[in-house]
Batch of 4 targets.
Target 1
Amino acid sequence: MPVDSVAFSPDGRTIASGCVDKTIRVWDAADSNPVRTLAGHTHAGRSVAFSPDGRTIASGSYDNTIRIWNAADGTPVRTLTGHTNYVNSVAFSPDSDTIASGSYDNTIRIWNAADGTPVRTLTGHTEYVNSVTFSPDGRTIASSSGDGWIRLWSTGSGRYVQLGTLRDTWIVMDDEGRFFVPPRGREYIRFNVGLNSYPQHSYWDRFYTPDLMQRFLRGEELPPVDRTPLDAHR
């Protein structure tokens, strides 16, 4: 049976694996012996993660749910529902208080790990979300998607910047339309934002933000961009 996901416990003594046979298996890392089998998913176990405190295992499945398990004895704690398609990835925040999940429904969902309540749904990807992870300080969630973009989301506000490739270069863009692109990538920029069109010089003046990534990662709240149409200035 194919195994879709593996994860080490924080102390390195235990391995969890998610399999297409609908189970999550826990193994002794020292001697490879099976410790227990966690059963409950009704479809393949697509993703597994240990909480950083080692107390909890989260598993995402093709049954559209996330299941939370007691890492010590394997007992089921709760089931998180809300995704409408496969759950491809699950991740814990560094303090073990928050869970992020990425799904084939194109969304990332944030959950309270203590009681399973939904905190926020992050939307913007136009294809399936393949992977999610938290930054070491817990302030940022990174997601990768079939739409070709990597997005960095503020855990607190849900705001994002996205990082993608443009042929032989790359671009960073936020949800207000601000962007940074190296000089060799400027030929690929098109100047339509929403329903508004911008001449090149006005678009550049309004949206170009060379320190966009750094400001986002610092947690700086950038003001909204004035989106008044500039067609009259063309």
Target 2
Amino acid sequence: MAPEARLFAEPGRTLVIGSGSSIAADAFIHGPVVLGRGVSVNARASLDGGVGGIHIGDGTRIATGAALYAFNHGLAPDRPIREQPVTSRGIRVGADVWIGANAGVTDGVTVGDHAVVAMGAVVTRDVPEWAIVAGVPARVVGDRRQKR
């Protein structure tokens, strides 16, 4: 783990880092977050587990600038954003997944094992196993099993 990485844990918002995992300089991680074995979190990636938490499976790669936020603010028009209720359902990312540079994953999403999230994609819905997703919002554009 790079000494410049910023990790935050507090009561009820723990961090678990699996063996062989790496966290690069300027990465930001705020629990609750569980990183499986051999996970890499690259520079400027940002993971905030909210209350629901983020769980990252073994061998997953999170590229530079990716953002995973496991919470959301309400949008009611009758009160300021700072006074809106916060919801948090959590994010699950499977094993052997690649989250591309500057991609975003929103609260409540599950990314299946072996999936790829393209650079700059914004994931707002669940991603099936083996799927390749791209775009804003992200949509399935391929299947890793067909990329030999």
Target 3
Amino acid sequence: MIQDWLSKLTDVFKKTKDSNIGKLFALVDEEINQLKSALTKTEEWRDLYKAEGTTLDLMGENLNQPRGQTSDEIYRVLIRGKSALNLADGTMNKVIEVLSLTLDCHPSEIEIKTLKETGDNEPAALMITKAPLEALNRVGMSPQQFAQLAQKTVAGGIRVALVNLQGSFRLSIDPNKLEQGTDGFSSDGTDGGTLGGVYTPQKEDDLPI
């Protein structure tokens, strides 16, 4: 850019970068580049997935969603969840849809059953039989926080009694035969069962929901 500016000068000026006017252009160019960088970041941070810090706080305030002590990653989840709750109608399919939108995962990664389906007689109670472990680990959300999020999503008067965080991995029923199903060992890193477990931080805070 500096050379382009210099080329537009009349011949009475020395058109080199080390000339006085060249050095002046260099200072102006640096300021312009810093301004461009700031404008680019401002534009990028309008995206929820890229925004950080106080910019995220402003997004949350627009939805009346406080941050509390949560990290940027979990706060993004809460903001998405606050927006997705407008879709909830109390049905299990909608609960799954809202949770998947909130955690940015596919609905097939979440399964919900009533306790009566599992043989328990407690009415108005649900059990999450399959949870999106990868999505939880990605944002650093603990099992307790996920249960709190799920409870906020279901209809009033419904209790989330249990969240199953077990993986799908299973050993073969035949000790002399390798498990070939989708729940066995992986053959190429893209198939096979998953192990259970979720990252749990040393200090755990309740979600501000």
Target 4
Amino acid sequence: KFEVSRSSVRDAIRALELIGLVEPRQGDGTVVCDLSADSLVNPLATMLLRKRELVGELLDVRKMIEPPLAARAATHAAPEEIAYLEAILRRQREKVRSGELAIEEDSEFHYTIARAAKNSVVLKVLDVLMDLLRESRARSLQVEGRLQRSLAGHQRILNAIKRRDAAGAEAAMYQHVEEIEEIVLKKF
């Protein structure tokens, strides 16, 4: 009905347990705790203070992982993967022209580069990282000019991959993630 995986629901319930909003009860399942104003405000204030720091750390991890992936994709991508990256950018460009967010294309572009790097372990790590950053990515794509900057960054990365220029792809991806970081951290 809600198109959410069981593991996502489990993680959400675990997070609610950690901040004291729900508790498991034998025979009743998970129930909402009696709430006071303090029990709501304190975890929320802590979470908001921590969120900016966490997003910054997650973006640091992206800077550590994605530029080398782009470099590796430049030397390992199959012609059909490059063609697929071009198709993603065409769809992204059309959405940007019509004022749509192109969140799916943005994610798909980064995921396809990771796939083209031919490392399944890093692909899983990137998957988790992108899930953790989903909200901040969606918000950052709404910032004035961000869609165009993202598209331009993707084009620079793809051009380097097409040239089989590993150093150029790495530099372009690093610049792209730094631009994202600058925008995202202004939003928090």
